[in-house]
């Protein structure tokens, strides 16, 4: 349905109701005739809308505007909004603001609102789609409709209102090898702002911003969440004014942020914002996760084939490349059940350490006199796929590329080198063409099935030749190269790595098949990193590897069973010199590989569930099939508890009317106990209803650094 409106103030648009996936979003005209979100949350019937709208106008306050305050989709000062505006742009000396509705196109669970600013300089199209998972997708297209003026854009934001019962916010921070660490705060008056100007989201990215009722947890509470599908500079905010936002209390959302002069629209040009995603749940954080996972898995580009168990050579050989040694490693890996062999850093010209060679994407003939094909053929002959590491966006000053084309490097203060490297300017067509040619040539010549695309530094200043900022243009250039590589090699899979988890967003994942969750393989750290990364991403998109006994990044010792149980809940792999593994370790690896192959169909399609914390040192998490006939859980202890005996731990997400057989899976080794004997139920074959399991199982008291796997299947009685 399409409607036009030449005088929005006198001819307000009809309300628009989007309903899908157990959620509703309702738009209704405010006093200026501009669409405002009247409801975002629980599914409503159309019959509910008149009553909703009849109660949607707030009181007129003392010492305030003489009209009811509103918060529209184009909130700005021209219409009385005192908070952060949706659009920050200028056309010469004029502010782009004061939008009025021009046209509405509504079909099912999708709507487009076209609005024009008061100065007739810009036309903004707000597009909203509520998908089958109940996830709201939102974009803003801003067009310059003048004949002779330039529009400078600083920011576009999609902001949705929050009810007063949204009292707390949880977001994430972190650092290298310690990503996705949650932090919780009370929502107060003012602006809670998380911004990234690193040229990538960063290890401290807010990632997924969760607001909710007081004390909301994984399994309880009402939650409103937002994510920006963008790999460049960005912000996320929660904002509350003393006068509120119409009948709502606060607002949630964000968008891309740009430095001055970074985005200039000439007449006739249009800017399209990154996609913002919003999820609501009345079943805690796990309810938000369920919507996000279902939506992500419905994408046509989502990987469908079983996620192959892989071996990455980095922590096995580092820069010591040798065909004979790598052939032995590959042979050992294949014998133990590995399905993909990935050669990491060190194969290209001049790359004997991390100080030289980046940018020279030619096989180093001094190390690989016959090229990479002999290794690739041996890997393929062993029944495995062959993968290869690249870092295409970066360049070492000590490289032929830097010496030949210094103008291709984004300008930085020389003191700001990171890992001896700087950033190539992907906004330049010649840089895109060079990287495409080199990657295409190597991928084709070596028969590469999988690319690990790394990104090992922030962009910082990221200046072009004229001193202008290039983060946005660089990010779009990277997207174009990834899209073209996939077009040329449709069967190729790509991993997004950014010194671990520094670029984990649904913008990069629209072009890649998984992310490297963290450079840290220490299972104690990984338990929390994976637990919270899974809030947004399903486990099949999370690279999760078993490293050596002593962690490369923390120096901590961990048992094989704990390392293996941790890596099981992702797209599993190994970073380990398997030729140095003991016979006992090899037996454990083979058993783990078999267990992964048995369970990955469940792990990579089921519903993620997480028990709320018993104490700071214990975690329960699992995957339940959609029909709730099968589940696998991990009971994990990362530190010593002050409680001597484990109480009943509720097992969430099951069918209360079904009867389950509960098995402890210890093929990968027994979890260490801090007790004389297990709870009595573990001595036999337990058969129990989902209702009883929801009340809880007394689980064993584990030593720190251990995990117990429980496998549940329904039985007929």
Describe this structure in words.
Strands 1, 7, 8, 9, 10, 13, 14, 16, 17, 21 and 22 form an 11-stranded antiparallel beta sheet that branches. An 8-stranded parallel beta barrel has the order 23-24-25-28-29-30-31-32. The protein has a 6-stranded antiparallel beta sheet with strand order 33-34-35-40-37-38. The chain is an alpha+beta fold and 717 residues long. Helix 8 (471-488) links the parallel strand 28 and strand 29 (493-496). It has 12 helices and 40 strands. The model is unreliable at 6-12 (pLDDT under 50).
Indicate the proportion of strand residues.
Answer: 25-35%
Largest sheet: 11 strands, antiparallel
Report mean pLDDT, rounded to a whole number. Answer: 94
Q: Into which percent range does the helicity of residues fall? A: 10-25%
Distance between the termini: 54 Å
Our Rg estimate from Cα atoms comes to 27 Å
Morphology call: globular
Tell me the structural class.
Answer: alpha+beta
In the predicted model, the low-confidence regions spanning at least 5 consecutive residues are 6-12
Q: What is the count of β-strands?
A: 40
> Helix count?
12
